[in-house]
Design brief:
Elements lengths: L1 H18 L26 H20 L7 E4 L6 E6 L2 E3 L1 H15 L12 H7 L1 H11 L9 H17 L6 H12 L12 H14 L20 H18 L2
Antiparallel strand pairs: 1-2, 2-3
Length: 250
Amino acid sequence: MEMEKEIQELRRQLANQQSSPAAQPPPTIKAPPSDTASPRISSIPSQLDQYINSEQAVNSLLDLRSGLDGASQLRNLQNGQGRLARRLEGITLSQEQIQNLFHRFFKLFHPFMPLLEPAKTPDSYYDSSPLLFWIIISVAARHYSPDPSLLPSLSTPISHLLWATLADVPQSYIVVKALCILCTWPLPISSTSKDPTFMLHGLMSQIALQIGLHRPSHAQDFARFKIEFREEELKDRVKTWVACNMVSQR
């Protein structure tokens, strides 16, 4: 409410300045005599300066109100097209960076854990699970020469996202996929005493059992609502359960 009042007040002041007779147009530059130097603008009218400051203040408050500063996805208007960038806490990745990192993940890491679909777009992965999206990014950022500091920078924000996601019950099998990948390529840590990988192994297995991945054809027994899976989805759940067991036994 306070922000809306400030916006309304600034708009009112801006309208008054535009309609006020005291407001003057920007100064005109007269052509100098041929024997003088280039013309200079000695000053800008105070009314024009106030107008610019007021307009900038209104735009800043509108941007803040719309949540652009803390949104998880931002609009990148490069080349005149609205393209989605992604943001996690203080780290923002452009669409070009995301595409490069996803390409790197599926080329260098995915063959060792073929659990995902390379044909899906990064936006599709983000829509299905922000945690899975950022874990893919973190794995691809390992030994990433264009930005060696990216992985260390992502470590804490992804940890926050991880525990916030796990606190939301019940889970989906997409989270099990994310944990399989994370346990295979853990985030960097300062000491083994702070390594949560063994804990995550247990959580991964328990979530898989809780949602019935060990009985893919009887998933209805583990759900409160009627669910139906297509053949592709059933195969994906079986593949996820196999990967979960392989990762747990490492």
